[in-house]
Amino acid sequence: MLKMFDIELFLTTIVFILLVTKTKLHKESSMSYQETMPYREKIAWLSMLAMLFTFGPYFTLVASGYFPAKPMPDLHQLAGYAITATLQVTLLLVGHMVLRRRNPQDAKLPADERDIAIKQRSVTAAYYVLITGMILVGVVMPFTSSGWEIVNSALFMIVFAELVQFSMVVVGYRRQAG
Protein backbone atom coordinates (compact mmCIF):
# COMPACT_ATOMS: atom_id res chain seq x y z
CA MET A 1 0.00 0.00 0.00
CA LEU A 2 2.93 2.32 0.66
CA LYS A 3 3.96 2.00 -2.98
CA MET A 4 0.50 3.24 -3.95
CA PHE A 5 1.20 6.36 -1.85
CA ASP A 6 4.41 6.95 -3.77
CA ILE A 7 2.74 6.46 -7.16
CA GLU A 8 -0.27 8.66 -6.41
CA LEU A 9 1.88 11.34 -4.79
CA PHE A 10 4.09 11.27 -7.89
CA LEU A 11 1.05 11.59 -10.20
CA THR A 12 -0.36 14.46 -8.13
CA THR A 13 2.98 16.23 -8.30
CA ILE A 14 3.10 15.78 -12.09
CA VAL A 15 -0.41 17.25 -12.48
CA PHE A 16 0.58 20.22 -10.33
CA ILE A 17 3.83 20.77 -12.28
CA LEU A 18 1.93 20.63 -15.58
CA LEU A 19 -0.56 23.23 -14.36
CA VAL A 20 2.24 25.51 -13.15
CA THR A 21 4.24 25.02 -16.35
CA LYS A 22 1.22 25.82 -18.51
CA THR A 23 0.70 29.00 -16.48
CA LYS A 24 4.33 30.06 -16.89
CA LEU A 25 4.28 29.39 -20.64
CA HIS A 26 1.51 31.93 -21.02
CA LYS A 27 3.18 34.50 -18.80
CA GLU A 28 1.81 37.58 -20.49
CA SER A 29 -1.76 36.36 -20.56
CA SER A 30 -1.47 34.85 -17.09
CA MET A 31 -0.45 38.19 -15.60
CA SER A 32 -3.58 39.85 -16.92
CA TYR A 33 -5.64 36.76 -16.11
CA GLN A 34 -4.33 36.67 -12.57
CA GLU A 35 -5.66 40.15 -12.00
CA THR A 36 -9.11 39.10 -13.23
CA MET A 37 -8.98 35.52 -11.94
CA PRO A 38 -12.32 34.58 -10.37
CA TYR A 39 -12.37 34.46 -6.58
CA ARG A 40 -13.46 30.81 -6.56
CA GLU A 41 -10.49 29.85 -8.73
CA LYS A 42 -8.16 31.67 -6.34
CA ILE A 43 -9.69 29.71 -3.46
CA ALA A 44 -9.20 26.46 -5.39
CA TRP A 45 -5.53 27.33 -6.01
CA LEU A 46 -5.09 28.24 -2.35
CA SER A 47 -6.71 25.02 -1.16
CA MET A 48 -4.75 22.87 -3.60
CA LEU A 49 -1.42 24.44 -2.70
CA ALA A 50 -2.15 24.26 1.03
CA MET A 51 -2.94 20.55 0.70
CA LEU A 52 0.16 19.83 -1.35
CA PHE A 53 2.35 21.86 0.99
CA THR A 54 1.05 20.18 4.17
CA PHE A 55 -0.07 16.68 3.26
CA GLY A 56 2.67 16.10 0.67
CA PRO A 57 5.40 16.01 3.35
CA TYR A 58 3.14 14.06 5.75
CA PHE A 59 2.49 11.27 3.25
CA THR A 60 6.13 11.30 2.16
CA LEU A 61 7.12 10.70 5.79
CA VAL A 62 4.51 7.95 6.10
CA ALA A 63 5.66 6.24 2.89
CA SER A 64 9.33 6.49 3.86
CA GLY A 65 8.69 4.76 7.17
CA TYR A 66 9.46 7.75 9.36
CA PHE A 67 6.62 6.74 11.67
CA PRO A 68 7.49 3.24 12.93
CA ALA A 69 4.72 0.65 12.86
CA LYS A 70 3.31 0.76 16.38
CA PRO A 71 -0.08 -0.41 17.58
CA MET A 72 -2.83 2.17 17.71
CA PRO A 73 -3.05 4.70 19.24
CA ASP A 74 0.45 5.81 18.26
CA LEU A 75 0.67 9.30 19.71
CA HIS A 76 3.79 10.13 17.67
CA GLN A 77 1.96 9.58 14.39
CA LEU A 78 -1.19 11.18 15.71
CA ALA A 79 0.84 14.27 16.61
CA GLY A 80 2.29 14.30 13.09
CA TYR A 81 -1.19 14.29 11.62
CA ALA A 82 -2.37 16.97 14.08
CA ILE A 83 0.52 19.24 13.12
CA THR A 84 -0.23 18.69 9.43
CA ALA A 85 -3.95 19.44 9.81
CA THR A 86 -3.29 22.49 12.00
CA LEU A 87 -0.78 23.87 9.51
CA GLN A 88 -3.24 23.37 6.65
CA VAL A 89 -6.06 25.13 8.50
CA THR A 90 -3.73 28.00 9.38
CA LEU A 91 -2.61 28.39 5.76
CA LEU A 92 -6.21 28.35 4.57
CA LEU A 93 -7.38 30.88 7.16
CA VAL A 94 -4.55 33.30 6.38
CA GLY A 95 -5.01 32.78 2.63
CA HIS A 96 -8.76 33.39 2.81
CA MET A 97 -8.22 36.54 4.83
CA VAL A 98 -5.66 37.88 2.35
CA LEU A 99 -7.85 37.09 -0.66
CA ARG A 100 -10.90 38.64 0.99
CA ARG A 101 -9.03 41.83 1.88
CA ARG A 102 -7.58 42.24 -1.60
CA ASN A 103 -10.96 42.09 -3.29
CA PRO A 104 -13.93 42.00 -0.91
CA GLN A 105 -16.48 42.54 -3.69
CA ASP A 106 -15.46 39.30 -5.47
CA ALA A 107 -15.72 37.35 -2.24
CA LYS A 108 -19.32 38.48 -1.76
CA LEU A 109 -20.50 37.68 -5.30
CA PRO A 110 -23.03 34.84 -5.48
CA ALA A 111 -22.22 31.83 -7.62
CA ASP A 112 -23.43 32.13 -11.22
CA GLU A 113 -24.31 29.30 -13.62
CA ARG A 114 -20.68 28.85 -14.67
CA ASP A 115 -19.50 28.58 -11.06
CA ILE A 116 -22.22 26.07 -10.26
CA ALA A 117 -21.45 23.95 -13.35
CA ILE A 118 -17.70 23.93 -12.60
CA LYS A 119 -18.34 23.01 -8.96
CA GLN A 120 -20.74 20.25 -9.96
CA ARG A 121 -18.28 18.68 -12.41
CA SER A 122 -15.40 18.88 -9.95
CA VAL A 123 -17.38 17.41 -7.06
CA THR A 124 -18.62 14.57 -9.28
CA ALA A 125 -15.08 13.63 -10.34
CA ALA A 126 -13.82 13.85 -6.75
CA TYR A 127 -16.73 11.71 -5.55
CA TYR A 128 -15.76 8.85 -7.85
CA VAL A 129 -12.16 9.03 -6.66
CA LEU A 130 -13.28 9.08 -3.02
CA ILE A 131 -15.71 6.18 -3.40
CA THR A 132 -13.08 4.08 -5.18
CA GLY A 133 -10.60 4.82 -2.41
CA MET A 134 -13.06 4.10 0.38
CA ILE A 135 -14.05 0.78 -1.20
CA LEU A 136 -10.37 -0.12 -1.35
CA VAL A 137 -9.75 1.03 2.23
CA GLY A 138 -12.96 -0.26 3.79
CA VAL A 139 -13.57 -3.47 1.88
CA VAL A 140 -10.22 -4.75 0.62
CA MET A 141 -7.59 -3.48 3.07
CA PRO A 142 -9.05 -4.90 6.31
CA PHE A 143 -8.14 -8.36 5.00
CA THR A 144 -4.52 -7.44 4.30
CA SER A 145 -3.65 -4.51 6.58
CA SER A 146 -4.47 -3.00 9.92
CA GLY A 147 -4.02 0.04 12.13
CA TRP A 148 -2.28 3.10 10.82
CA GLU A 149 -1.89 1.69 7.32
CA ILE A 150 -5.67 1.69 6.91
CA VAL A 151 -6.02 5.10 8.58
CA ASN A 152 -3.32 6.68 6.41
CA SER A 153 -4.73 5.07 3.28
CA ALA A 154 -8.16 6.53 4.05
CA LEU A 155 -6.63 9.95 4.74
CA PHE A 156 -4.65 9.75 1.53
CA MET A 157 -7.73 8.96 -0.54
CA ILE A 158 -9.64 11.85 1.07
CA VAL A 159 -6.78 14.25 0.32
CA PHE A 160 -6.38 12.86 -3.20
CA ALA A 161 -10.12 13.30 -3.88
CA GLU A 162 -9.94 16.90 -2.64
CA LEU A 163 -6.93 17.55 -4.90
CA VAL A 164 -8.90 16.15 -7.82
CA GLN A 165 -11.79 18.45 -6.98
CA PHE A 166 -9.63 21.58 -6.70
CA SER A 167 -7.72 20.66 -9.86
CA MET A 168 -10.98 20.26 -11.76
CA VAL A 169 -12.14 23.69 -10.53
CA VAL A 170 -8.91 25.29 -11.75
CA VAL A 171 -9.12 23.49 -15.10
CA GLY A 172 -12.78 24.48 -15.45
CA TYR A 173 -12.02 28.16 -14.96
CA ARG A 174 -8.93 27.99 -17.19
CA ARG A 175 -10.98 26.50 -20.02
CA GLN A 176 -13.48 29.31 -19.65
CA ALA A 177 -10.74 31.95 -19.71
CA GLY A 178 -8.73 30.50 -22.57
What is the typical, i.e. mean, pLDDT? 83
Q: Count the E strands.
A: 0
The chain-level structural class is mainly alpha
Q: Termini distance?
A: 39 Å
Detail the poorly predicted runs.
none
State the share of residues found in helices, binned by percent. over 70%
Gross morphology is globular
Order of helices and strands: HHHHHHH
Quickly count the domains.
Answer: 1
| Structural Rg | 18 Å
* Number of helical segments with 4 or more residues: 7
Q: What percent strand?
A: under 5%
Structure write-up:
With 178 residues, this protein is mostly helical. It has one domain (37-177). Helix content is 85%, strand content 0%. The chain is built from seven helices and no strands. It has helices spanning 2-25, 27-36, 39-64, 75-102, 104-108, 113-140, 148-177. Helix 3 (39-64) packs antiparallel against helix 7. The termini are far apart.
Brief summary:
This protein has 178 residues and is mostly helical. It is built from seven helices and no strands. The protein is globular and about 50 Å long.
Per-chain topology:
Layout: H1 2-25, H2 27-36, H3 39-64, H4 75-102, H5 104-108, H6 113-140, H7 148-177
Name the features.
7 helices; 178 residues
